[in-house]
Design goal:
5 copies of one chain form a homopentamer. With 304 residues, the first copy, chain A, is of the alpha/beta class. Chain A contains 14 helices and 10 strands. Chain A has an 8-stranded parallel β-barrel with strand order 1-2-3-6-7-8-9-10, surrounded by 6 helices. The longest helix of chain A is centred in the middle third of the chain and has 17 residues. The interface between B and C is large, with 43 and 42 residues.
Chain lengths: 304, 304, 304, 304, 304
C-alpha cells in the first residue's frame, strides 16, 4: 500500500484543491517504485521538439519510437512520463493506465527568435488522453514572461476546475539576466517562488549554482552557507512556501553517471522531492538507463 | 456588535452595488479589532513576487511560510489579508472563515522590462477561495496603462456581478512622469480619482509628498496649504468622490517604527480609512510586529 | 405633455431602431425644461478623468462630490447627465429616475502617450445603472482610430440590441491632422458624418471654425459662405444625414458667459440640437451656473 | 417572371451554399430592370466614409440625404443598393422590401495611416436590417492583408450559415505593389481569384489596364492579346473559377458619360456580370443620373 | 475490398483518435487505385492562391475550372483532392461522395510581406463540405511560427473532436534558416518531427537534400549514409515516430517526368507513404497527366 503518511502529508499542503486534483497528485505520488515515499522520478521527453529528432535520438535509435519511452518509464517503475501532444497520442491507447502521464502543453524549438514557446496542447487534450497533469514552461526574466504567465494562469485554472494539477517548468532566461545568472541561487529560488505563487502544484527548476546574480539580493545571501548543493536545494525548497509545494530538479545535458547520482543525493538531502531526468535516461542504451534508474530509486529510498 | 453607524455610513456610499458586494465590504469593515470603526488595517504580502523570496523573507525566515501571514493577520486582529493566488491557496483551507482575504490578481517581478503586470488570478479563483475582494494594480502614466485599465474594468465588472468588491492599487509610474512625480500630491490625488472613476470600492495609494508635478495643475494648488501629511491625505480623500470611497495608504519600504505610527496618525487625521502595511510588518520579528500592530490599532481607534 | 410633434419627428428618423432604443432617446428628448422642444442640454462630467480632480473641481470644491452634478443637472432641468462609471455608480441609487444618464464608456487622461482611450465601462454597466445611453469618444485621424471604431461598433451593436442608444464624441485628432485642422469645418463635418455612418444616435462634435483643412475638400467649400457660426453648424447638421441624426455641440474650455450664449444661439439658428456643456457649468459657482443654464434654456426655446 | 434560365444557371454554380444564401443571391439577380438577365447594376454609396461628405455630396446636395440613394436605386430599377451601417439604418424602415441592400461592413477614411479598414458592421446588423448580402473590402498586397482576410473569413462563414451571401471588394494596394500595378491585368485577375478562393459569392474589382506588373507572370501573358478592355474583362472572369462566380466591375472616379457606357459594353462583351457604379451616379443631377442608368440597363440588355 | 491489413496497421498507430477521425483517415487510405495499399497520391491545388491564376493555369487553361481538378483526381483514381475554401465550394455539390477532399485552411500569396499565411477556412467549413481532413501550413523557423503553431493547435483540436484528421504542410522557411537549409535533411526531419509532435495525422514535407544545416546536428549525421534519396526519406519517416505517422512528400515545381517517377520510387523505397503532387499534374495536358498518374500508381503498387 503506497498511500502512506508521507503522501498524506504532502497532499495536505494542497488544501485548496478539489478532490480530483489531489487524486491526480496522489496518482503520481503513489505510482512506481518510489510510490509512497514522497519522492519522485519523472521521465520527460520533449527534446525532439527542443533540439530535433536526430540530436535527441540518433545516439539510441530505439528512442525514435514514442512507445520506447512509455515502456522505459513503466519498466523502471518511475512515477510519471511527460511529453508533448503527439508523442502522448502515439502511445496513450497502448499504455493506458500503466503510468501517470503529464502533457507538456507548450514547446519551443531550435529556431525560436524570441524567448517564448508555442502552446501546443490543452487541458481538454490532457483529459481525453487520461493525463494526470499538465506541464508548462515559463521563462522568468524574458520579455514575454507576462504573456507566458497569463497563458498558464488561464490553462491552470481550467485544469484545476477539472481535477488536473499543473507542473511549471520555471526556467529563468532572457531580459537583463546573464548566462551565469540563469543558474544563480537567488534567481532559481525566485523562479521557484514565482511558480508557487502562480499556483503550480509541482515546481520544476534547475539545480542552482552558488552564484548570486541580483545586486539587491546579495545582502540577504551574504552570510549564508551555500557551498554545497544540498544547502542550495534546501533554500529552493524553502522558497516554495517553506516546503509546502513539491519541487523537482532537472538534470541538464547528459553527463557522467556519478554526477547524476550525486545530484540525486543532494536533492534528497536538501529536502527536494526528486528528479526529472530526460536526456540522461534515453540517450543511454536501455539496459544502462534501467540500471541508472534503479540506482536513483535506491538513492531516493535512502538506501545509499 | 460591529455593524455600527460608521460602517452603515460607509456602505451607504456604495449605493449602486448589489447586496453581495456590500456584504463583502461589510465583512472587511466589521472584522478584527478595528471592526466597526470605519478604519482598516490590511496585511498585504506580494513582495515575494515583486522582489523575490530572500529579499522579502530572509530577515524573518518564518515568513517563508504562507501560514505565518494568515496567523499574524488573525492574531493581530487586522481587517484583511491580501496575497497572490498561490499564497492564498496554501492557507485558504486551514484558515477559512478566520479572516477576510483579498486575492491580488496581478503581479510584477524584478525582471519586468515594461511597466505592467501579469494577470495571475481571476474572479473565479476569488470565489472558490472564499475571498472578500480582488486587488489589482494600475500604473497611471505608464505606456500600458490603457491595457491595465481595460483588464481591471473587465475583471471588476465580473467581480461586481458575483458580489466581490475591487481594491485598486493606483501607483503612478512610467511615461512622462519623473521619479519625484510618482509621489507628488497632484499625481497621487489624480491616481486616486482615476481609481474611483474606474469603479474601485477600495483605493490604495501611497502617502503623497508636497511636490506638485504637473505644470497645468500648479495654479490649482498654488495657494493651498499642503505642508502637513494630514492635509495631503485629506486632499486625496476629497479626490475620491469627496470621501465617498474607502481610501487606504501604503507604508512603503520598512522604516523607523515611529514614522509608521506618525503615518497612521496623519492618515487618521486627514480622514483616510487606514493602512495597508506589508514589509513593515512581516520583516520584523513576530512579537515586534504584533506590538506595532497593536499600537496602530490604538491610533486608528483615536486612543493616542 | 412633452411627447410633441417635434419629438415624434426626430424619433421617426431612427426608423431602424427597436422600440427600446427609441424609447430611451425619447426619455432624453422629453426630459427637463427643454423636453418636447427637440432641443437638448446635456451636462458631461469626465474632466476629472481627462485632467485630474484639482484642475476640474478645485475652483468650485463642491464639485468634487458626484452628487453635486446629478443635483445640478436635475435642478437646472437639463435633458441628461453624462459621466464615467465610478461617478455614476456614486449617485445612481440616490437619483434613480430623476434624470436620464449617459454612461461614458471610454476615457483618457493627462498621461496618455497615444491618441486613444481606455474602455472603462460596458453596456451591462449602463443597464444595471439605469442609463438612457452610452457615450464613446472616437478620434478620427488618430493612428488608433480603426481600433476605436471597432470597439464602439461592437459595443454599440450590443447596446442597440438591449435598447440603449449610442452617443459618439467624434473629435478629430492625431495622424496627419494639424492643430488648426482639428476644428476645421471640413474636418468637423467629416467627423460628424463618420459618426453617423457608424450608427450613432446622437453625435457630439466641437463647434467648427471657418478653416478648411483638406486640400481635396477645398474646391467643395470654395464658393460657400462659412463666415458665421450658424452657417457652419448648418453644414455639420447637413453632413449628419441631412439632419436625420441628433447633433449636439460642445463648448470647449470655460469662457466668457456671453460667448456661451452666442454659441447656443448659433447652434439653434444653424439647426443643431443643442449643447453639451461641462466646464462652463461646474467650474462656476452653483448659483451662477444655474442662472446661465436658465438662459441657455430660454435661448433654445427661442425666447431670446 | 424573372427566375429565368440565366438566373438558374448562375445559381447552379453556388452548389455548396444553403438555400438561404442562394435565395438571397436570387433576390439580387431577379430584382429591377435587369432582373432575370444575369446582369447587375449595383449602387454603392460609401464615399462619404472614404472621402467625407462635402467631397461626395456637395456637387449634388440632395445626396446628403440617405433616402435619396435608396429612392434613386429603386426608381432606376437597379439590382441592389450598398452602403455602410448608418446609411442603411437611416432608410431601411422606409424602403423595406423595395430593393435588395448590401451592408458594407468595413470602411476606411481619408486619414488612414495604414492600408486597412475598420470593421463597422456585422452579420447581425445585416439580418436585422433585412439585407441581401454583406460587402467587405480586402487589399491584396497590403501589409495587413492577412488580417483583413481573416476578418472576412470569419464574417463570411457566419453570413453563409444564416443565408447571407458575401460580396468582396478586392482592391490590390500597398506592399510592394506600384501605383500602376494596382490596375494591372495580372494583379486584378489575381485579386479576383483570391476573392473567389476565399469563398466570395460576388467579386468586385476594378477594370484592369493592359499593364502586366509581376515579373514572374509576364511569360504567361506574353503572347496573349490584351489590347481591348473586353478581352481583359474576359480574363478576369476566367480567373474567377472559369466564370462560376459573379464578377462586377467598378467605374472609378466620375468621368465622361460616354466612357461609362463604353465600360459597360466592354464588361458585357467580356462576360462580366455588371457594374457597381457610385460617384458616376450620385454626383450628377438626378435626372441626368436616371438617364444614364437607363442607358446602362439598355446596354446590359444588349439593346445597344 | 480495400480495408486491408496494411490499412489496419496504419490505423492502429492512431490509437488515441476517436473512431470518427480514424474513419476519415480510412476513407483516404481505402479510396482510389491505391486504396488498401497504405500508399497515397493526393492532388493539391492551391497554387492559384500562392502564385496567381495565370501562372498556375494559363499553360493548361482547362485548369481554371475547379471542376477540372475534381474530375482529374477522380478519373485518375487518386486518394484525395486538397484545395482552399472557394475551390472546394465550387465543386463539392457536384462531386459529393466521389473523392475524399482536404480543405486547405490557410494560404499565402505572392505579396506576403512576412512568412506567414492567412487562415481562410475552418473546421465547420470542412464539415459542411463533407471533407475528410483539413490541411494547414506551418513554417518552422519563421518569426511567426509560434503563432502558426497555436492556430493549428486550436483548429486541429476542434477537428479531432468532430472526427476530422489534420494534414500539416511543414515547410521550414525564414528566421535564421538559409535558402539551402530549407531543404536540408536535418531541417526536413526536424520539421516533420515537429508536425508529428503537434498531433498531425498526415505529415507533408519536401524531399530533402543531403545537406546538413544545423551545426549542432552535424555530429549526429556525420557517419550516416545520406547519399540516396531513399535513405533520406527513410530518415524522415523514422523522425515521424518511427513510422507511426503517415508521411507524404511534395514534388516541388513542375519538372522532367522521369524525375517525378524517380521521386516516387525513392519515396516508396524509403518507406514514405506517397506523393502530394500538384503543379506536375495540372500543368500538363490532361491526357499526359493521366498517363503520369497511372505510372505513379504502378510505382507505388511496386509494379515497376
Amino acid at each position: 500500500m503506497t498511500f502512506t503518511s508521507a503522501v498524506k502529508a504532502i497532499l495536505s499542503n494542497y488544501e485548496s484543491d478539489n478532490p480530483g486534483t489531489r487524486a491526480n497528485l496522489a496518482r503520481i505520488l503513489t505510482h512506481g517504485r518510489l510510490g509512497g515515499t514522497g519522492k519522485l522520478i519523472i521521465l520527460p521527453v520533449d527534446q525532439g521538439f527542443e533540439h530535433g529528432p536526430a540530436r535527441s535520438f540518433a545516439i539510441n535509435p530505439d528512442a525514435y519510437d514514442p512507445h520506447y519511452h512509455y515502456q522505459l518509464a513503466i519498466d523502471a517503475g518511475l512515477n510519471a512520463y511527460a511529453a508533448p501532444l503527439g508523442a502522448l497520442e502515439a502511445g496513450a491507447g497502448t499504455f493506458a493506465g500503466q503510468i501517470p502521464t503529464i502533457l507538456k502543453i507548450n514547446s519551443s524549438n531550435s529556431w525560436a527568435s524570441g524567448i517564448n514557446q508555442a502552446v501546443t496542447g490543452s487541458v481538454e487534450d490532457a483529459l481525453r488522453l487520461g493525463c494526470a497533469a499538465i506541464g508548462f514552461t515559463v521563462y522568468p526574466a524574458a520579455d514575454d514572461m507576462f504573456d507566458m504567465m497569463e497563458e498558464i494562469r488561464e490553462m491552470s485554472a481550467e485544469a484545476k476546475s477539472v481535477g488536473i494539477p499543473t507542473v511549471i517548468w520555471s526556467y529563468p532566461r532572457g531580459g537583463k539576466l546573464t548566462k551565469e545568472g540563469e543558474l544563480a541561487l537567488d534567481v532559481g529560488a525566485y523562479a521557484a517562488h514565482i511558480a508557487a505563487l502562480m499556483g503550480a502544484h509541482i515546481i520544476k527548476v534547475k539545480l542552482p549554482s552558488a552564484h548570486i546574480e541580483q545586486k539587491e539580493a546579495k545582502p540577504m545571501y551574504g552570510d549564508g552557507d551555500w557551498s554545497t548543493q544540498g544547502l542550495r536545494v534546501a533554500h529552493v525548497v524553502k522558497s516554495c512556501f517553506n516546503g509546502r509545494r513539491i519541487v523537482v530538479f532537472s538534470g541538464g545535458a547528459s553527463k557522467d553517471i556519478d554526477a547524476v547520482y550525486q545530484d540525486a543525493r543532494d536533492i534528497r538531502d536538501g529536502g527536494g522531492n526528486g528528479s526529472i531526468i530526460g536526456r540522461n535516461t534515453f540517450q543511454r542504451p536501455r539496459a544502462e538507463a534501467m540500471a541508472m534508474l534503479d540506482r536513483l530509486v535506491s538513492i531516493y529510498k535512502g538506501e545509499e
